[in-house]
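Morning. Coffee machine broken again, so started the prediction first thing and wrote up yesterday's gels while waiting. Chain of 223 residues, entered below exactly as on the submission form.
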Amino acid sequence: MSVRHDRPRLTDRRVRLQGRPVDSYPARAPEADRGSVRRVTVVGEEVLHRPCREVTEFGTPELSALIDDLFLTMHVAEGAGLAANQIGVDLRVFVYDCLDDDETRHVGHVVNPVLELPGPGARRLVDDLEGCLSVPGAAMAVPRTDHAVVRGSDRDGAPLVIEGTGYFARCLQHESDHLLGHTYLDRLSRRHRKDALQQMADRREEVFARRTVKAAGLGRPGP
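Came back before lunch.
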């Protein structure tokens, strides 16, 4: 998921790591310093359009490396969230580093997430611009609920419950969709989907170039 550009990317005020408040946290998640930059898949690639597989082995070096790579790739691509199939791995894992509407920064990862939304009577839909790192350069208004809960596990298999409101709730829904084989384009009308794809065609090379420059600035090879 792309970052909103109408407010700061990070905040020094409040941080919740894996759903729990922490006193301080670096501007770049420590996982990113261990990771490698991976190529971000683009809408139309088959891995983005099929459900991902459950993770069955926890605490492995392979799972930790995947999470590290997701964090660094998300950082380089200037994202607020990134799912494993967006780097070509069809496993149910996503990472996030996202501000909510109260400027609280949420950072973490979820393995085998299950999304829970409010019931119809308690549900409030909000239209807001939404972008996707796999639809580079495009942003469209998408209705999402303003509250969401994701239940899953961390990399070691410990249970997690992550609750989000506002834009972070949108992020949780967006990344959960990815792991089911959906992108936000699937929630658009035919006309709006066509508009988004045209935006991508017009801007994707600029986005790719920016990612390459950022990776180089970190001393890492580009994807």
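Residues 115 and 176 are 7 Å apart (CA to CA). Going to sketch it on the whiteboard this afternoon.
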